[in-house]
Amino acid sequence: MPQLRLALAQVNPCVGDLAGNADLVVEWSRKAVEAGAHLVVFPEMVLTGYPVEDLALRESFAAASRQALVELARRLDDAGAGGVPVFVGYLDRDERGMRNAAAVLHGGEVVARQFKHHLPNYGVFDERRYFTPGDTLDVVRLHGLEIGMVICEDLWQDGGPIAALGAAGVDLVVSPNASPYERNKDDLRLPLVARRAAEAKAPLAYVNTVGGQDELVFDGDTIVVGADGELLTRAPQFVEHLVVLDLDLPGGASREAGEFEGFEVRRLVISEDPLPAYDPLPAPQAAEPLSDEAEVWHALVTGLRDYVHKNGFRSVVLGLSGGIDSAVVAALAVDALGADSVHCVSMPSVYSSDHSKSDAHDLAQRTGLHYSVQPIADMVKVFVDQLGLTGLAEENVQARCRGIALMGLSNQHGHLVLATGNKSELAVGYSTIYGDAVGGFAPIKDVLKTLVWDLARWRNAQAEKLGEQPPIPENSISKPPSAELRPGQVDTDSLPDYDLLDSLLDDYVEGDKGYHDLIEMGFDHELVDRVLRMVDKAEYKRRQYPPGTKITLKAFGRDRRLPITNGWREG
Amino acid sequence: MPQLRLALAQVNPCVGDLAGNADLVVEWSRKAVEAGAHLVVFPEMVLTGYPVEDLALRESFAAASRQALVELARRLDDAGAGGVPVFVGYLDRDERGMRNAAAVLHGGEVVARQFKHHLPNYGVFDERRYFTPGDTLDVVRLHGLEIGMVICEDLWQDGGPIAALGAAGVDLVVSPNASPYERNKDDLRLPLVARRAAEAKAPLAYVNTVGGQDELVFDGDTIVVGADGELLTRAPQFVEHLVVLDLDLPGGASREAGEFEGFEVRRLVISEDPLPAYDPLPAPQAAEPLSDEAEVWHALVTGLRDYVHKNGFRSVVLGLSGGIDSAVVAALAVDALGADSVHCVSMPSVYSSDHSKSDAHDLAQRTGLHYSVQPIADMVKVFVDQLGLTGLAEENVQARCRGIALMGLSNQHGHLVLATGNKSELAVGYSTIYGDAVGGFAPIKDVLKTLVWDLARWRNAQAEKLGEQPPIPENSISKPPSAELRPGQVDTDSLPDYDLLDSLLDDYVEGDKGYHDLIEMGFDHELVDRVLRMVDKAEYKRRQYPPGTKITLKAFGRDRRLPITNGWREG
C-alpha cells in the first residue's frame, strides 16, 4: 500500500503576531522535514492566531496576512522545507469578502487555498460577522495520493465539505482546527473524527491549536484515525507537540473534479509518482486524555502563562488573604511562571484574623514565592473618617485600599495584578468592584467555589504523589470562607452554602434552566428567587471584571452577552 | 379615495420589562383610540425591548414573551382598544428557532404574526446569533385595504420582503423599527423610506423606538411618506410621541396570496367594508431634524437619563475637576436628571491649581447642583509613603484615591458614579484604570475631546439664546487641559494637540484607515506610529471602562471587538 509520513504541528501562535507566527511555522516545518515528513499540517489560522475578532475587518490586516503567506512560502523553501507541502491557516480576502482560509505552500509558492464553509456564530464564535463562506475544495495530489482538507467547523457540521470529499474521492483528509477547551465536553472529538473519517472514506488527521488567547484556552488534543475510525495516535494536551506518523494508505481514490454535494472540487497536482517503499517509524503512542481536575488545572496554568507572557509581562502581584481563592491563584501562578515571578502581599485590616496572616505566610514558605506584608489600617482610616463611611461603604473601602495598593506596586515594579475572585462570587456579585475585582487577569474567574476546593486538594495530592511539598496550606482549604470585612463575618452570612449555591448556579447559568424548572428540580423557591435576583443584578459588575481563562460553556465574558439595563426577572 | 387614520407610537420600552412594556402599549393604544385611529403601530420588539441580547437564548424568556403577547391582546380589548388592529413587536419561538417577530392584535386575539427576514450581524447587531429568518408575510385587510408589514432591516436591504409586497400588492406598508442613533449618518432614513415606498407602490409608515438602552440610544424620527415618496409627516427626535395622521389611500391593490419573490404572502381579513368618508384631521407638521450638536447633546442626555432611571437610580455623583470633561458631564447630568439629583465633589490634591477649585465652584453656582470639597492629600500620602511610590505610580494613586472616595459616597448615599473620560483619552489610554475610569456610566465615552469643547460652546450658546445662565464656566472651556497629577502638567506633555489627535483617531478608528493610508493622507509618520501604538496598547483599559452612550459607528464597547493579547502593529 502507498505510504506517507504525516507531520501535525500542534503549536501556540499569538493573535496578530504575523512575524512571530510565521517563524513558528518555519521552525516546526523544519523539524518535520528533519523527521522525514512528506506533508505538514498546522492549525486553523495559525498565521494570524485565532480568534482575530475585529482585526478581521481591518483591510490592512487582511492585506498583511496575504502578504505574510506569500513570504512564508518563500521562507519555507529557503529553509529547506519547500519540498513538502505545508498546510497553513490564514486570513484571506477576495472580491466576495474576508475568508477563514488555509493554503498549501510548496516549492516556494502558494499552490492551493480553500475557505471555511460552515461559520460558527454561537457561544464564543462570531464568524458570520467576519467571514464569507467558501464553496470550493482544493484536493492536492501528493505522491499520487489525493489529500483533501476541511477547516474546523466544517468537520463538526453534518453534510457540507466532508460529504463532498466523500462523494468526490480522497485518500486522506487533513483538518486544521482552533477548537477551545471546555470542561465536561467529555470526549466528543474522537467519536466525531471517527465518524467523519467513515463519511470521507479515508483516514483523517485532526490538528488543533494549543495555548491561551485572552479568555480562551486551546488544549491541542491532535488526533489521527484510520478510515475505519480506529485511533492511530493522539497528542498530549496543553503542550506544543509535533506528531509524526507513517500511514499506509489504500490509495486509488477517484480523481474526478467538478461539483459534488454543492461544492466545486478542484484537483491540483503536486507530484504523481508514488513514494518508493520505506521502513516506517514505530507508531507514536496515543496520549491518554487527562483527568477532569488535571485538565482544568492545566487549562488555568496555560491560560495564565500565555496571558502574562503574550502581553509582555514577566511577573505578577496578588493579594494573599490566607483564604482558598488567593492560595489557589498563587499556586497556579507559581506553576505557570515560577516562584521567582510571583509577588504576594498580605494586606491585613483591623478585622483580619491571625490565621489569615499565618496561612498566607505558610503558603509563601511552601512555594518560595516573594512575600511581603502591608497593613491597610492607616489607609482605610483616612477614607472612613474624612467621608464618614459606615456599613457596606466601610467594608468596600477596605477591599478598595487593597486594590489601590496592588496597582501602586504594579505601576512601581511592572508586575501584572491578578484578581483572585471565583465564578460563584462573580455570579452573585459577592465582590467589590475596584476592590478585590482589581487586576489585569482573573485566573479562576470561570471556576465555581466548590471546584476551587477540589483543585486545591487535587494539586496537593499530586505534589504528595511526586514527593513534593503540597503548595496549599491545609487550613486554607478547611476553614470556613470569609471576606473579613467586618468582625466575625463569614460568606454564609450573605450566601447559601457553596454546595447548594454552585449546584443552583450550574443549572441556571450553564443549564439555562428557568425559575420554574429550578423549583421543579427541587430547589427551594425562596433560594431560587434570591439567587436569581443576585445573578441578574450583578451583570454590571461582571462587565468590568478582568478577563480570565474560560473552562465552561458559559463563562461570564464574551460568550454570555446580557443587557445591564434589564427589567426581566425569572419567576 | 379610501381614508385611514394611522397612529404611530414612538415609545421608550425597557429591555426585559415585559409587564412595563405591555403597560406602555396599552396606555399609548388607548391614546390612539381616543384620537380616532384605525390602526396603531409600535416599534420593533417593543414588548421585550431591543436589543435583548442573550436573553433571546433563554427558553423561559421566549415563553414569557409569547404569553405576554396573548395577555396583551386581551388587555387591549378590555381597555377598549380591541376594535383597532395594534401592531406589536415581540420575541417569538417556534419549531425552527427564536424569531424577531411582530404581531397584529385585534378583538382580544393575535390575528397575524410575521418574522423578520434580514438579520443584521454587523456593528452592534448580532441577530444571526439569535434568530431564524422568516419567509412568510402576513398582509391584513382592514376596511378593505391591504396592509403589509416589514420589520427594520427588511426595509434597509434591497429585495426581500419589500419587493415581495410590491409584487403581491398592498395599499399601505407599516414598518416597526429599533434603529439606533448614529452621528453623521446624515439623513439616510427619509430617502430610504421614500425609495421603499416606491418599490412597494404604497405609502410607508416607519416607526422607530426612542430612548436609551445601555450603550445604545434610539432617536425616534418616525416618518410617513406617500407612495410617490413625498414626506407626509415626521416625529421629533428623542421624545416619546404619538403621530396621528389621516391618509387618503388609492386602494384597489391586488389581493392575490401565494408565493412572491420567494416569500409566502398570506391574506388575513379583519374587515372588508370601507370606512364611511370623514373629515380628516389637519396634517401634523413634520418636525425638523436637529442640528448636529443639538442631536448629540440630546442623545447624551437621553442615554444618561435612561441608564440611571432604568437601572433604579435617582441620583448621580461625579468628581468636578474644573476641567472641560467633568463640566460637560455635570451639565449633561443636570439636563438629564435635574440639578437636585446631581452631586459633585471637588477633590483637590497638592498639585491642583487654584482655578481648578474656583472653576468647579463656579459651575456648581451656575447650575445649582449639590457641591462639596474633599481634599485627597491625606489619603494619597499614606499610600505614597507606606508603599514608596514615585513617578507614574504616584500620579495614578491620586486618581485612584478620587475613585475610592466617589465609590464610598456612592455606597453611603446610593448615587450612581459617573465617569467623566472622553473618547480621545480612552482611545490612547490617557486615563487611570480604577481612578478616573471609575463609574457605573460614562456619558461622554464616545465623544472626542474636540467635540466635548464644541458641545460646551453649543450648550452655553443655547442658554444665552433662551436668556438663561450658560452652565459651563468660560474658563473651563478656554484653559489648556491638564490632569494635574504633577506640578505644571498639561495634556500636551503626553499627547499631540487634540485637533491633530482627534483627526487621526477619526481616520484610524472610524475610517479603519491603515498605517500607510494615514501617511498618504499627510499625517507625520512618527505621530502615526506613536498614536497607533497607544491605541492598540489601551485595549485592556477600554475593556474595563464603564458603558457610555454610543454616538458614532465605532464606539469602544460592543461594536468594536478586538483581542487584548494582540501582536499586530500597523506599519
From TrEMBL, chains A, B:
Residues annotated for deamido-NAD(+) binding in this entry: 396, 425, 541
Key words, A-Z: ATP-binding, Ligase, NAD, Nucleotide-binding
Which terms in the GO cellular component ontology are assigned?
Answer: cytoplasm
Enzyme class, top EC level, equals ligase
Name the UniProt record assigns to this protein: Glutamine-dependent NAD(+) synthetase
Segments for region (Disordered): 464-494
UniProt record similarity statement: In the C-terminal section; belongs to the NAD synthetase family.
- Tell me the function of this protein: Catalyzes the ATP-dependent amidation of deamido-NAD to form NAD. Uses L-glutamine as a nitrogen source.
- Gene this chain is encoded by: nadE
Can you name the source organism?
Saccharothrix variisporea
